[in-house]
């Protein structure tokens, strides 16, 4: 019989091979080597030397083109063919295998053969066998260890744990599909394990299979057979290196399989279009997933295999954009404002906020939102639209975007901290994040570290109490808040330009907060209502500057419906002043005077008027002149027929202990209080000199805490209150409650004020707030500094007499200060001296009790006129009150 040619697909045992047509791999035939037999390989356990015999033949033949000749057939059920095989290097089988001792002659070899050729072959094989026996080769070894081969893996997870990170040597025994292989792990020379593995990172089309539920045959998916054949021709019965990574939900091993010279098979399969990437293995592959994505992209671009009809989605032409985060609606939804002021809503690509409907995730909803608010509100970010999610029931169309802040992907930041989960996309989703694999890896790391959502413990829920719900509740909270200054808060909602909902986390309080000292035009509350001129502009401005921002508030009073009145500071600037300066609010004289911010508010209003901003766009200066003339002609007995408010006569001995940067005074009243303070300070000093009392604070200080603080100027200990705290720098701003001055010092200069004999309950804070009557200090910072310096010099280390002209509701004293050694007349006061130096002026808009003191006002105005004529202080360049 003539020689035939074929390619060896696989080796079934030491004496049998599978051959396939060189041009058509689907045409296969089984060939057994003539006259010989090998130990059997069986599922229940291999015969001794069965694997070694087969492995010898496998190494010689698999993947090679050979010539073969059929010698005879045995017409059994399989109709098996028997013959000889020749390799290109002229090696002949079974000759070589018999010579090496891995095959033995069959007992019935040649019994039915009577040809000379058969006799010659048998004679030669008998010689080879006799020599192998003599040399104890192969099967003829006197002693040999038996290989333990198992076809089942009892615990796949444990196997992965034991071998993760190792390069395991294996042989691919069978290719079930393009992504499913049965491999033999060669764990040791005497221990083998056969098991199913899944190729990591890919899913190949399924091959023809029988459904286990109903026994029906299911056809192969498109390109399923091609994928299987692709892997078979490259890996079947080849030595490979396997890295086990994990297990699938069904307990199958997920692993990478590497060819000895070509590397991992997965990228080649993807690039041929015979598989798709699967997201389920991203966390197992880590950074290696990127190479698979690139291979898949090349297949899509060239429309290979399963991507033959692929249509690439239209690339976004928008590119990278810049915007400011104007509002954080939730942990995955932001409102961005561009340079033109236009606002748009976007959703973060591929991430989802904690589910409000999930009892385990719901407590993290406010935590995630607050995390994002602190990071992003008011900040400049870059964003790129990744795609659009079409409208569905209950949801409008949404733009999915990648947002970066300071080079960090915001979605990734949330996932890393366990404050968002990653959306599981369908294969055809076009709106997935460009760093989707990184998101999956970050989620896996957060789960492993039990961060945020993945923590077994829920965060403590913050319940805010609405103190503006009723006037009674507001008054109770007012007592506490009015004692504090610059209380940290968050603007939760902007109701109008001057009315806000604020949250005070420190107090778990929710307040309706109204700006004092101004009146802002009203905006329309609904589409059918008409607002006042510039009402909407003012509302929009407040929204832009304040929405969800961290602010500080000073609470002064409350209104009739439970709203809290006071000053709101954003970036340490009074927002009421900002509104007035932009021409979006006017000064309300009475409340401005009452709040103590009249000077800066009137100065801001004047600047807005001069610049014709906002509501002053058609301002006529003559209107103010007419109003002033009307005021000056008004009856000093009062306004609108009301009785005049008398100026008090209440003389007290005082010491001025501090003059603030705004010109406000801190007074100590001389008498029983000052005597008690002297006694307390002596005891306080002795207490802190004792080494046993030198313990620092047990915990970081909090705003509002009373402490003992070591003043940097004299290194003495004084009673103080924490105004604000810097945890990063470990420093605190303290106010010395008996003197009124403040400074920022490290925590190391603080001690507890827990001793009852020194507490403010035993002796109340001795520094009282006060302001000079009849005097309006300059708004210009340079002249204001000169005024403060002059007042400090005139009052330093001197016991003075103060006439308390009026006491505000918050306890602030309006005083006229006299030096008893120099003042002989009512108009010879320190207030008058400040005006004489040109460092203050008589207010244009007087309080009712100031207007009643006509004799004092007349004398002070004369001093002011002289200061103007002599160009003193703020008058050095002329009359400030002239237009």
From TrEMBL:
Name where it mostly resides. cytoplasm
Q: One Pfam family name from the record?
A: SNase
Please name the GO terms of the biological process aspect recorded for this protein, alphabetically: mRNA catabolic process; regulatory ncRNA-mediated gene silencing
**Which GO molecular function annotations are given, in alphabetical order?**
nuclease activity; RNA binding
Q: Where is the Tudor domain?
A: 700-760
Annotated TNase-like domain ranges read 2-142, 166-309, 319-456, 485-618
Protein localization: Cytoplasm
Q: Which InterPro entries match?
A: Silence_cplx_Nase-comp_TudorSN (IPR016685), SNase_OB-fold_sf (IPR035437), Staphylococal_nuclease_OB-fold (IPR016071), Tudor (IPR002999)
UniProt-listed SUPFAM superfamilies: Staphylococcal nuclease (SSF50199), Tudor/PWWP/MBT (SSF63748)
Q: Which UniProt keywords apply?
A: Cytoplasm, Phosphoprotein, Repeat
Give the region (Disordered) as residue ranges: 613-644
Which residue stretches, if any, does this entry annotate as coiled coil? none
> Mind naming one GO cellular-component term on file for this protein?
cytosol
Q: What is this protein called?
A: Probable endonuclease LCL3
